[in-house]
Amino acid sequence: MKLFSCGVCGSTVHFDSIRCEACGTGLGLAPDICDIAMLRDACGMAEDRHGGRWRLCAHNTPDAGCNWLVAEADDDPWCLSCRLNRVIPNLANPDHRRLWKRLEAEKRRFVYSALRFNLPITPQSRDLRGLAFDFLADGPGFSERVLTGHAGGVITINIAEADPVERERMRQEMDEPYRTILGHFRHESGHYYWDRLVRDTDLLEPYRVLFGDERVGYGAALQAHYENGPPVDWGERFISTYATCHPWEDWAESWSHYFHMVDTLETAFAYGMRLTPRTGLTGALSVDAGLDPYETRNFDALMAQWMPLTLALNSLSRSMGHAHAYPFALASPVIDKLRFVHHVIHGGVFADGRSRPSPEIASSF
């Protein structure tokens, strides 16, 4: 995530800031320009540094905690992120309010990335091909379980995923090294964008070469995975054990991982991070985060920064007595899949009515 600055005093502010800690100016994020705007009056009107006018999202409340803004000319009361919601939990329950607020905070990070990538992010309420979110709770006595997943452009997330104790229990039960709220948003969005950007395009066959044939029965493949586990050599071809169960999941895990990589690299870029290890391998382990990872079209340049950065992240985490911050190993076939995701995102502009990925990109795989 990049850093922002207060338009009044110039102090550093952050993605989720609601006010400048230095001068007290109220702040909000204008999603159309991915920048911070300053609140100018008691009615909640804001102005960005280019003179654009904005107002507070209707979910700028203690329960939702949304700091995003709506363009003054837009008659929708909700910001882009909030208007993606189709169902939210019953807020009469204080636990639901607490968990929903955490979910919304992570959803805004996902939407920010989609905007930076210029991906289609239209609410399904306005376009049947658009995206929607259902945030649901388990039924009485947990006899009615809500399964996190995607179907027909609707991403369903069990709000229990926002409870760190429950999420850790699930992580251990599923034998996963990594499980986060943001990871769920990124993974499930991968299924949605596969439908939008790969299916019915000239990238489908190259996708099948790398990930496998998605026409293999999904239900049977998932059952076999849970009964038999992953293949012994899964790490040589897949980013995670879950990626082994079906080509759709392999794609979604790779898509999610690419988002992790780019967003983390943007943070390193924003802080001007430089790594020059005091070893004889300085060339292989050096990082000079001098590029905006959302803008670069050079995948190899991203990987050259990513690998040494993860080594430093893991070393720092271990020095604090924690497990590896980045518990992954990227084999060559996995890197090829990440490269494919990179080209799907950058190989064309995917908004409605505009160009699809070019045949040249498709033929390169």
Automatic annotation (TrEMBL):
Pfam families: Peptidase_Mx, Zn_ribbon_DZR_6
InterPro entries to which the protein is assigned, alphabetical: UCP012641, Zinc-ribbon_6_bact
Domain Zinc-ribbon: 3-92
Name of protein: Zinc-ribbon domain-containing protein
